[in-house]
Amino acid sequence: MARELKKWKCFFCEGEIVEGQLFTFTSRGAVHWECFMTLVEDRLGVDNRPLLLLELDKYLHEGIVKVKELEYRARDEETRQLLREVRKMLEGQSARVTKMVAERLRL
Ligand SMILES: [Zn+2]
Q1: Which member of 1, 37, 73, 83 has the lowest number of beta carbons within 10 Å of its beta carbon?
Q2: How many CB atoms within 10 Å of residue 85?
């Protein structure tokens, strides 16, 4: 029988946090990672667009790495071609997002 998953209540959204989800604890209790980020951004009062774009960019780059790994594992040309097309799309989008972050912050 599967063991019972631990659960907590998020002090911010009051939703349930289940073991295995991304979360953390503060002196106010358990909080979803996304809820914590929202709190931090609200408190800093900054324009959070660059942060969101950077996070999006990281997901796109992780996707590129993952798709590359699948390309190496693909055994037929049709699958390899499909993966290559998806990777090219991710590369195009990530280049666009990286440029937006860099331009906004003059990096
Ligand atoms: Zn929450």
Answers
A1: 1
A2: 11
pLDDT in tens, 37-74: 999 999 988 888 998 999 999 999 999 999 999 999 99
The rounded Å distance from CA 52 to ligand 1 centre is 18
| Contacts of 57 by beta carbon, 8 Å cutoff, 6+ apart | 94, 97, 98, 101
Q: Tell me if residue 23 falls in helix, strand or coil.
A: strand
Distance 87 CA to ligand 1 centre (A): 33
66 Cα–ligand 1 center, Å: 29
Kindly give the distance from the C-alpha atom of residue 37 to the centroid of ligand 1, in angstroms, as a whole number: 10
